[in-house]
Task: structure prediction
Amino acid sequence: MIHINNLHKHFGDSHVLRGISCDIRPQEVVCVIGPSGSGKSTFLRCMNALETVSEGEVVVNGFAVHDRTTDLNKMRESVGMVFQRFNLFPHKTVLENLMMAPQALQGMSRSQAESLAQTLLEKVGLSDKRDAWPSSLSGGQQQRVAIARALAMNPSIMLFDEPTSALDPELVGDVLEVMKNLASDGMTMVIVTHEMGFAREVADRVIFIDQGVIQEEGTPEQIFTAPQNPRTAAFLSKVL
Result:
């Protein structure tokens, strides 16, 4: 579903991604780990053209993201993105936040969009918050609404950029539980995360990035119990 070949990304003189290649298969859950500043989030953001590709190929659901002529808005209709910060519209209720994209981009009627929004709020355990303002919710609740909003476009791929890093520790569990349920439902997911226990439990594959390069990738069992790269082992020794 995602094909990446020799991906490079420059920010001025800074060479952030240095020739990354990988493929993401349908229904695969891939967790991307690594130290801060290693290029993980940039790697993720290149997948839906939030960052332009300096060199190489990025193909998502058949769309050549690296090609400047590609209709990126069309591509993004099938790719949901959840950020560290929740980015909810503060002047709209929870329900209205979820209804906007299906109505505006898919031509869904108000009643259809409302029914879909209610279903998704039930999915993330927040059906009782449909008429609440985002500012009245906890960080964990806002992030669960953000996940529901991304799901409202019925994406085939979900990208998560450290979705729990801005949350208080006691709020992390509810968000991770929603993501576990998505994984069990067969959603294709790429997750940049610092939650090693979550990666170990949910991922089909773990990718360790450092200095803009994939240093090692494999199953959670391989990465967490018998890393082959000394850099991977050194990183894990500090975070586990």
Summary: Strands lie at 2-11, 14-24, 29-33, 55-60, 63-64, 79-82, 157-161, 188-192, 205-210, 213-218. Residues 169-184 form the longest helix (16 residues). The radius of gyration is 18 Å.
